[in-house]
Amino acid sequence: MAEEPIIDLQSDAHFMGEALRQARHAYAAGEVPVGAVVVCGGRIMARAFNQVELLKDATAHAEMLALTQAEQAVGDWRLNGCTLYVTKEPCPMCAGAVVHVRLARVVFGAPDQKGGGAGSAMNILQHPTLNHRCEITGGVLELECRELLRRFFGERRAEREGSAG
């Protein structure tokens, strides 16, 4: 009988901390504060944050940018055995890309009940008809991840209300 892999929660917290640093870069740039890192063999292969507004590209989510960087670092579009750490549950677009690159695991901080593609609204990462399924770990440093998003959107609402009055 094959043993289950040991998941090191200390490592999960460490790498999510790195993703949170990326999310803070997004926040400072006026982007939705989501950060992502891709880890292979215990090493960070890619780091990215949301750049949708900066690049004027709806696909420039932190996950998509990190996957592209990791593919370049590894020298292949397949990211077998790698883990994506992201501060917010991936959307359906990003979850689809994760399946296509064949990541082993996705670890996220804050769930997205309305649009999450890793189990909250839908579960693309483990959809039975797709050719690959990922292990999912949610809620790592959830409070920090959620608070950054809450603060960002609270400030945006206050700005809109201030300019409407």
Description:
- By secondary structure, the protein is α/β, with parallel strands linked by helices.
- 42% of the residues lie in helices and 17% in strands.
- The protein is built from five helices and five strands; from the N terminus they run αββααβαββα.
- The chain has helices at 9-28, 52-55, 62-74, 92-101, 142-164, and strands spanning 35-40, 43-49, 83-88, 105-110, 135-137.
- Strands 2-1-3-4-5 form a five-stranded mixed beta sheet.
- α1 runs parallel beside α5 (142-164).
- The model has no long low-confidence stretch (mean pLDDT 92).
Features:
alpha/beta, 5 strands, 5 helices, five-stranded mixed β-sheet, 165 residues
Q: Low-confidence parts, pLDDT < 50 over ≥5 residues?
A: none
Beta-strand content estimate: 15-25%
Mean of residue pLDDT values = 92
Total strand segments: 5
Helix count? Answer: 5
**Mind telling me the C-alpha Rg?**
16 Å
Helix percent band: 40-55%
Strands in their spatial order, largest beta sheet: 2-1-3-4-5
Q: Could you tell me how far the N terminus lies from the C terminus, measured between alpha carbons in angstroms? A: 66 Å
Largest sheet at a glance? 5 strands, mixed
- Counting helices, strands and paired strands, the structural category is alpha/beta
Question: What's the SSE pattern?
Answer: HEEHHEHEEH
Globally, the shape reads: globular
Short summary:
The chain has 165 residues and is of the alpha/beta class. The protein has five helices and five strands; from the N terminus they run αββααβαββα. Strand 1 and strand 2 form a beta hairpin.
